[in-house]
Amino acid sequence: MNLEIETYSKYIRKQIADVHAALKGLSEQQLNRRPDVPGANSGYVIATHILGNARAWVLGIVCEQALRRDRPSEFASSGTYEALGKAACALSGEIDAALAGLDPSTLDDRFLPPQELWGEGEAQEITRREGLAHVLEHAAMHLGQIQVTRGLVSRG
Q1: How far is the C-alpha of 139 from the C-alpha of 51, rounded, in Å?
Q2: Contacts of 74 by beta carbon, 8 Å cutoff, 6+ apart
């Protein structure tokens, strides 16, 4: 694997592991509780959304695998820490395998991603490199939200 792509793979998979680890020790009720803050989501929902985004952007957009994304279901999800861990582990393996097959000469190719995989807002022309960077930025932002959410739902 190309060193740059290997670096993206490593750090995206690390973000996924960090998201899962940030929820360790919460009860199932705490994991699925939405804090009493307008527009807040549960830690489980935020983590599921991070996984959904990483899957859509790395596998679907950057690596051009045929897949569908049900973004609304990410925000309606609930489950256990163990199930989230299995999903995170599986996705990390898929990402590593997909990026191993990515041709590094295509990192600067500009293209318009499918709107279905894009998320909110209108899809914009990007490069594959920008797509990989987006996954890291998106996961980091939401990891911070998980940390705040954890504090809110852990209070007595």
Answers
A1: 9
A2: 45, 48, 49, 52
Residue 49 and residue 41 in contact, taking contact as beta carbons nearer than 8 Å:
yes
- Please enumerate in sequence order all residues whose Cβ is within 8 A of that of 86, keeping only pairs 6 or more positions apart, or say none: none
In this structure, what CATH number is given to the domain that contains residue 135? Answer: 1.20.120.450
SS3 145: helix
Taking the C-alpha atoms of residue 134 and residue 137, their distance in angstroms, rounded to an integer, is 5
Quick one: residue 116, left, alpha or beta (phi over 0 = left, psi -120 to 50 = alpha)? alpha
Look at the chain and report how many structural domains it folds into.
1
Instruction: Dump pLDDT digits (tens) for 89-111.
Output: 999 999 999 999 999 999 999 99
Reported confidence tier of residue 156, pLDDT bands at 50, 70, 90: low
Q: For residue 34, give its domain range.
A: 3-154
Percent of the chain with pLDDT over 90: 98
**pLDDT confidence of residue 1:** 85
Other CB atoms within 10 A of residue 151 CB: 10
Backbone φ and ψ of 110, nearest 5°: -95, 140
pTM of the model: 0.97
